[in-house]
Structures are given as C-alpha cells and as structure tokens.
Design brief:
The protein is of the alpha+beta class. The protein is built from 16 helices and 17 strands. It is globular, with a radius of gyration of 24 Å.
C-alpha cells in the first residue's frame, strides 16, 4: 500500500506547493518508507524540451535520496515560487520490491518524458519485463513501477489491458501534454478525484483531497441516503460532496497546460483470456480453477520483504495458506479471536482460533493470534473511522488488531477477502431472488434484501426538508448496478 497525490491546474490560480505536501503528509501511514514530489510546467522554459520540472524528497528521507533537495529546505523555498506550475505529483512509498532508492517515486523513464506514481502492485511484471527486454528495453531497477513505465513507453495507455494486478496510478506524458488516472479492473486499490473551477485534485484517500484545502468537507445528501439504506456506497460518489471514486477498470484522461480542459473517461479493455468454450464436466472445471487459483497466489508471493498470511480457519484463507506454504516453509500466519468469558450459545462460534490453530498444525505454519476483549472495539472506532473516511467499520476493528500483530513480523500479509463473493458463499443472500417469478421481481427482492440500516418507508421521516429530493438516489444506484449484469 502506497499513497499517491496530485494537483492539476485547470484555471488561473497557482498551485501552492504546501498543498501537495499536506496531501502526502496526511497519507503518510500508507507509505512510511519514502516520500517524493515533482512539479511540472508544461511546454515552457529552455532548461528542458517540452517544459520544466523539479523534484524533491521529504526532509525525513533526505538520507535515502541524497541527490534530491528536501521540499522543506531553502532550495525549495527559493525555486518553487518562481514558476506557475501546471501539475504537482506526490507519493508516499511502502517499499515491497527493490528496497533501494532506485524505487523512489514519482518515477520517470530514461528521457523523462513519462512520469508515474503508483499505489499497488503489478503481479505479472516479471513476464512483462522479459518481453520488454526482448524488444531492447533496458532497466535500472527491479521494481514493477519501472516495468509499467517501459510498457507505457511501448504501448501507451493501451498497456493497461496487459496489467495483472491491483493499482491506482497517475501517469503524466510530457510530450503529449496529458495526465492519466487509472484503476485496476476489480477496484482493489482506490483512486479518488475532485474537480473545482481551478484544479483537478486526486489522491488515494478522501482525506488526501481534503488536505489540499481545495474541497470543503461537506456531506453529500444523496450518498447519505444511499448509506442509510445499504450501509454502503456502490457508485462513484462518496459521503464527501464533490469527491468521486474512479470506478474499477476506468481511465480519466485530461490535457495539461490548458484552461478548463475536458475530462475524458473510458473503460480500458479488460484483457481476460479467451480460452474457448468453458468446460462442461466438473473434474476439468475444478482442475482449471485450481490452476488459476494457485497461479494467482504464487504471483502475489514475489516480494523483497517478509510475507505472511491471515488465517481465519475458513476455506478462503486456508486455501491461500496451503498454496503459499509450499513456497515458504513455516509461513507466518495470524488470527484474531474473542474473549469468550460469559459468552454462551451461538456466539461461541465467532471465535475462530481453535479452527485456525488446527489448520496451522495441518499446514505447518508458525502461528500467532490476538484476543479481543469487550472494550477493544470502541477504543479503536475513532481512529478507524479516520482511516476509513467512512463510519461503516464492520469487522475493521478486528482486522486492525490482527494487522498490528502481523506488522511486528511481516510487511506483506495475504488475505482471503472476496472468496465468498467469487465462489458463491453466503447462499442465504440469494434465496429471495431465486424464488422470483421474473426479472423485475428478482431486482425487487435483491433491493429489499440489501436494505441494511433502514427500510425505505422510514427514510422520509429522517430525510426532511432539503434532503427529501435525494431519497431516490439509493434505488437509482441499485438499478444502475443491476443494469450492468449480464
């Protein structure tokens, strides 16, 4: 996990360097290992063809980047006010691949035409790198970020279809004078953006955008109605008015150095393999799923830092540990459980430690657990709400405590999130829909099932006055999602 930040000038106002520094500072928890900044003036100046740029690091990391001045230093105070910059990029790095200073971001290609900030990981970067080397590309780092730069050099934005990974990226093409924001096709990694009259602001977290001071922290009434219905937000608008979450698999493209440019948005080709007809017999299908699953796990084990895994005792994390354990003998695993004092009946089943310990013994892992007590959740709520930029904490408090434990031993932790959604878990969710007589009844049954906080007939009593016009938003969002189903 890293943190990206950026400000693009759209009007006449100047970019204040303090804004991008504040955006990175508030996201420092995402990238504790390094920080970088780059400022660009498009198509101006004699020092560089195609414009002028200047780079900085953070004073905290000056020892890692001795060739870069600190943004808090005298040179920055003298140099930055001299120019009316069109674009500022910032990055907070969590070092996973190539731990040297060569992995510093913002990263540029050899002729400084392309610049990138990346949050996430490109899992198929070894194969992509090999293909690019065969074409004559020369690399100076072992990072997946540089592979992305060379791939973009080779294919332009079409290269996004070739990426197998989780990412939120910003790419600046100085020659074309164009900025691209993109997000992985499953939306694992975030990319938030907001547009004002004078600026396009983007970051890995809403608080990063708010830290720029360009957006007032106001609640979006429609998003609030959606949240009070589903206890979740399914569209691109979030609880903060004016801030958008770039949808999965989408690219936002905008010209740099022009006044009031048009924002162009499109989905990139997913690039799923076309292997012909799906298998009809169970044995063949099971073998193909197993091969795809094991390949996916192995791809995520490439790391220059210690790797572990969460282990809940269920099928999801247990399957991941079974595969990862073949590559890492005595893999470190971590579980969170609950103090069962004065607990009886069905609630005793919420503590998964016994099952996790049995799986650990079976799979020969080095296992650790943390026990949560009654006061642990309220003690963590305020901090977690700040991190999530959202009041819906769910099981975040448990995961946070387990992550704190894991961080004492490893820097990367595998998890089984999404397994139930992918393989049809939680069957009770679908029973009402399966009994529906037609498509309209199916949609209605699903809509009613996903009411998590308040039924629709209670919302008008809460959303009064100026909030009333926004009551239709939950249904509109739901219908838009259902319309996208095959």
């Amino acid at each position: 996990m890293c943190g990206v930040a950026g400000i693009l000038k759209l009007g006449e106002r100047r970019i204040d360097p303090d804004w991008i520094e504040a955006m990175c500072r508030v996201q420092a928890h995402r990238g504790p290992d390094d920080a970088g900044y780059a400022f660009f003036r498009h198509g101006e100046g004699q020092r560089r063809e195609g414009g002028y740029w200047v780079e900085f690091t953070d004073a905290e990391f000056a020892h890692l980047n001795e060739h870069l001045p600190a943004i808090q230093g005298d040179y920055a105070r003298h140099e930055l006010p001299r120019y009316d910059f069109d674009l500022a990029l910032g990055h907070r790095r969590l070092s996973i691949l190539d731990l040297t200073h060569y992995g510093h971001q913002p990263m540029a290609n050899s002729d400084r035409r392309l610049w990138v900030v990346l949050n996430g990981e490109i899992y198929n970067f070894p194969q992509l790198r090999s293909d690019l080397e065969a074409k004559g590309h020369v690399f100076r780092t072992r990072s997946d970020t540089e592979v992305l730069l060379h791939l973009w050099e080779d294919q332009g934005p079409d290269c996004l279809a070739a990426l197998d990974g989780m990412f939120g990226i910003a790419v600046y093409d100085r020659t074309a004078g164009r900025l691209y924001l993109a997000r992985d096709r499953f939306g694992v990694k975030p990319m938030y953006w907001a547009r004002t009259d004078d600026f396009l602001v983007f970051a890995s977290e809403p608080k990063g955008i708010l830290a720029s001071g360009r957006i007032e922290p106001r609640i979006d009434p429609g998003s609030l109605a959606e949240y009070m219905t589903f206890q979740n937000l399914y569209g691109e608008r979030i609880l903060f008015e004016g801030i958008h979450l770039l949808p999965p698999g989408e690219v936002l493209e905008v010209d740099v150095g022009t006044v009031s440019p048009t924002l162009r948005r499109h989905r990139y080709q997913p690039g799923f393999p076309s292997g012909g007809a799906a298998p009809t017999d169970m044995d063949t299908a099971a073998a193909e799923v197993a091969d795809a699953f094991e390949s996916a796990v192995r791809r995520q084990l490439i790391s220059d830092v210690p790797v572990g895994s969460y282990l809940s005792g269920g099928m999801d994390s247990g399957s991941i540990v079974a595969v990862a354990g073949r590559e890492f003998p005595r893999l470190l695993t971590f579980t969170g459980g609950f103090d069962l004092t004065n607990v009886s009946g069905i609630e005793q089943g919420f503590d998964e430690r016994p099952m996790a310990e049995r799986l650990s013994h079976l799979l020969q892992t080095e296992h650790y657990d943390v026990v949560l007590h009654a006061g642990d959740m309220p003690a963590a709520m305020e901090r977690l709400a700040w991190h999530m930029d959202d009041p819906r904490l769910g099981m975040c408090h448990q995961n946070w405590y387990v992550a704190k434990l894991a961080s004492k031993f490893v820097k990367v932790c595998l998890a089984g999130a999404g397994g139930d959604e992918l393989f049809g878990g939680y069957p009770w969710r679908y029973r009402q829909g399966l009994r529906a007589a037609d498509e309209a009844a199916f949609d209605e049954a699903c809509f009613e099932h996903w009411h998590r906080l308040l039924p629709g007939d209670e919302l008008p009593g809460i959303f009064t006055g100026e909030l009333q016009p926004h009551l239709a938003r939950p249904r509109e969002t739901f219908d838009a999602l259902m319309a996208g189903l095959p």
